[in-house]
Amino acid sequence: MPVDTHVHRVAGRLGLIDAELSAEQAHRPLTELAGPENVYALHINLVRHGRRICHARRPQCGRCPLAVICPSAGLFS
Ligand code: SF4
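Above: inputs. Below: predicted complex with iron/sulfur cluster.
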């Protein structure tokens, strides 16, 4: 899976990867987590979520549908 800045940030905040991993290091665990059939969908949805809600500086946790499962919810307000 390509790990761009959105994928790296959102996956780390959601606890899908160890937040200490670099984007390069996150490639393998995210690819394995998704499985071959879901790599594309996971990538697209992490990018979309990062662009629309889980912004780098001011994530919109208050309107995030993933807040109930996100270990980082509310840490940025
Ligand atoms: S709850 Fe906040 S930190 Fe977690 S995914 Fe949503 S916007 Fe990002």
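Residues 13-14, 53-54, 59-61, 64, 66-67, 70, 72-73 surround iron/sulfur cluster (CB under 6 Å).
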